[in-house]
Amino acid sequence: MITPLEFSQAKGNPMINFDFLVAGCNTRCQHCYVNGDPGPMMPLADALTCLERLDELAACLHDEVSFTLDHEPINHPQIDQILRAAHQTQHIQNYHHGMTTGIALMHRADQDAVIQAYLDCGDRTFGITVHGGAAQHDEIVRRKGAYDAALAAAACLKAHGAKLEVSLMLNRYFEQDAPSITTMLAQLQPDSVYFAMPIFTPHRNMLDFEPHRATAGTIAALRGHLTQWRQDEATVLQAAERLTIGSAVRRLKQGITWQSLFAQKQDELYLSLHPDCQLYVGNSGSETRCLGDLRTIDLQACAALLNTLPGNRDYGAYYDEAVLPPMPQLTAALEQLPQDLVYGDFESILYRGLTALNTPTRLL
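RE: above sequence
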């Protein structure tokens, strides 16, 4: 499945994505970097109005523009109407990520009609995230029965002709859960399998996941299993060694500066639209500025502002450079943490150290 950034890069342009929070999530995953949890739904009339307004706004923007219906759109009782309206926009692409907890789908009496609405709109790929066996999965997403619901939804979607992706969200229990993961994949026969090393950002719940975080040793113990899970074993093992805290410490001691990191080009600008129609700069959970109610704001003025904003994927998305500690202090803080913990990227390790130092963020 192509991502919003890949879509824009294919055309050689930066990317702007709006996280359109049409309904809350069914879980409260401890590793979630978009603060997904149960929450309010956007009323149908507001959702339709905001789609029209977002399309008008996109017409005034210079970059490639997309939006994503989130957190768990299938929770919305009128998702079929919202979905069809989302596919009628002229100036902005509806990026269908297809990820679902499965809970909303399995609790709907009209699940056949909902799935068909997606298929009719050309959205044929769906995905579930699995956190190992049932017990570990339910603990990490903080909902009993979530594992069974995810697998039931996956089977239901496949039975309707949808393509299925399974994301394996790595944690320290994967070694003991490896046989059940293999059985699950053999049972579901997904079209693709993604192996995810969880990132870290300074969101409100991220520290909750740290006791579950895998180590380089966890991944080393998955030799053989990774191949069964359709992964390039050598690539995964190399990434694990490269993305430990210890590896980051050694890299920092070679002389990296905050100035060089903040100078890196950011090609992705994320915004979020909340169920109350308030539009924010920043992805869900990492908002840094409120732009106002999308139903009533001056779209020309809003577009003029957005056309001047830098990307906000990393670094400046969370911190002002002026408040950051000297690199030796950050390095010392990281050295106090377990050196073999594995993260999804280098930036995550820096954020973990900054969080340990209680460095203030830009987040609202």
